[in-house]
Structures are given as structure tokens and as C-alpha cells.
Write a structure and sequence with these properties.
The protein has an eight-stranded antiparallel barrel with strand order 3-4-5-6-7-8-9-10. The protein has one helix and ten strands. It is mostly beta strands. The N terminus is likely disordered.
């Protein structure tokens, strides 16, 4: 996710609010009776022909990204993700992007989650800060879902801590 925004501009240390699509529930999922807490690790899948350089982003630019998701860093792959983001503001070295995505988990818990965030990117920051993504809805086991996902840069991965309530 971090590398996706670099591709469209010179924001070398950005993070992108993300939504994840997982094809299997992580073994670490904890069912709290009315919600779930679990962690996944995302690693970007580069688009064909993508590069790390390009002009600085401007308002109206859009970009997409996709990741593979793992139960642990370098562990078993449990799915994939994808999102679309639009640059909505720029000022100096900072840009804001509004990102929307969908999470799909199968195999207990199962269903879909949707998520959204407005995230600020700073081209001068080589280590982006953690940020939260709002869970805006769901289906299946995630019917009436709300909560958040804390996204934290973790080397070549991003750690995603899910905090989901379903009542």
C-alpha cells in the first residue's frame, strides 16, 4: 500500500488507507460474541509496469492497489486486498487521499466488510505513522459491522489489527 502512492508521485513515505480482501479467516481471529479481533499482514502486489517515480500527485488523481494478506509476516497466505483512492487536497509536501475498499473473509467468520479513510501523506516522512480505517458495514457474519482497522507499517509489510463489532 505504501508503495502504491509512491508510484503516482514523489510521496516516498506515504501510507494508504486500505481495505483487505481475505479468502480465509485468520487462525488468530477471536470471536467476542458480538464481534471479532484479529491481525493480518499485507504485502503489496505490484501492478504490471508500475514504477516508483512520477510527477507529484495533484487533486483529482486516483490510484488503486492490491496486496496479498498473510496470517503472519511471511506465513500462510490467507487472501488479498484492493482499494481505490482519490487525492482530494495537496499542500506543500502533504496530500490527503480518500480511500475506499472491501474486506471478504471466508471460513469462519465469513462475509464482507467495507472500509474507508481520509489519510494525510507527507513526502518528507520516511517512516509513516500508523492510522485507523473506519469499518462502514458488512454482510454475512459481519452483518451490521462497525469498528476500525489499525494499519501500522512493519518493514515490507503492513500490520492490520481488526477491531470489529457486529451488534
Amino acid at each position: 500500500m505504501i508503495r502504491s502512492f509512491r508510484r503516482i508521485g514523489a510521496l516516498g513515505a506515504c501510507t494508504v488507507a486500505a481495505a483487505a480482501l481475505a479468502t480465509a479467516a485468520p487462525a488468530t481471529a477471536h470471536d467476542e460474541g458480538d464481534g471479532f479481533e484479529f491481525t493480518l499482514y499485507a504485502k503489496e502486489v505490484p501492478a504490471p509496469g508500475a514504477s516508483e517515480s512520477g510527477p507529484a500527485p495533484k487533486v483529482g488523481d486516483t490510484f488503486t492497489f492490491a496486496d496479498d494478506l498473510y496470517k503472519t509476516k511471511g506465513g500462510a497466505k490467507v487472501g488479498r486486498d484492493g482499494a481505490i483512492c482519490a487525492v482530494v487536497r495537496t499542500s506543500g509536501d502533504q496530500s490527503d487521499a480518500n480511500c475506499i475498499g472491501t474486506f471478504v473473509l471466508n471460513g469462519g467468520p465469513g462475509g464482507q466488510l467495507t472500509a474507508q479513510a481520509l489519510t494525510t501523506f507527507d513526502a518528507t516522512n520516511q517512516q509513516p505513522a500508523a492510522f485507523d480505517v473506519a469499518v462502514t458495514g458488512g454482510s454475512g457474519d459481519f452483518k451490521n459491522a462497525h469498528g476500525y482497522i489499525r494499519v501500522t507499517p512493519d518493514g515490507d509489510f503492513e500490520r492490520m489489527d481488526f477491531h470489529i463489532t457486529t451488534r
